[in-house]
Amino acid sequence: MTSSVAHILQAQRIFKNYGDIRVLHDVDLEVAPGTTHAVIGPNGAGKTTLFKVLSGELFASAGTVRFEGRDVSRVPGHARVRGGMGRTFQVARVFGENTVLDNMTVAIESRETVKTLNPLRFLAISRSSALLDECRSILGQLGLGARMHERAGVLAYGERKRLELAMTLALKPRMLLLDEPMAGMSPGDRVAAVELLARISKELSMSILLTEHDMSVVFALADQVTVLNYGRVIACGSPEEVKASPLVREVYLGH
Does residue 158 fall inside a structural domain? Predict the structure, then answer.
């Protein structure tokens, strides 16, 4: 279900300093419900820092972050996840010694335990046939159904990224934050991942914010694009508007 607010995520006048070094300078960003918004820019532009501020891994030095209209500027990342944000990382974070199914079970148990505030429900949940059905369904949608009893550590890199996404989706977030989701993927995995994210966005009406270097991915997925350079927003608009910007072509896309 999409949010009733105008912007599911809104950042206003974000500044971030590391000591005397200013990394983000007066950054605004808005994500409308049910849309995909990409943040792009050269290396060192501040994309990762902005992503960490928006997801709660870091707090801004100044400025406001709102999620579904609520001020979450000083809410840590784990609490933002409980509040409806789902996040993946540049390097997939899965439990390599555990099976694919066990990884999914942990994600769903975490969701249900937070919901009920009762840790004693872990055992009952883990034995639930409904949980297994949910795991199979999500893994099947992401092409991992046949690997569910294998250790996550033996999966190919693209498969581990898909497992991390499956675990994130199991939390039933209202917004996905994807940090370089295609990093390290083969061309084939990248094509499959683009198709998967497009399907997730459409079928679940889910809002997505992503950082990504691959412009073919960005322009295939994004409804809106924000371009950073030296910690400042230099352009924001549709993919067509961004591609047509002389300044963006000069500093990032090339002529």
Answer: yes
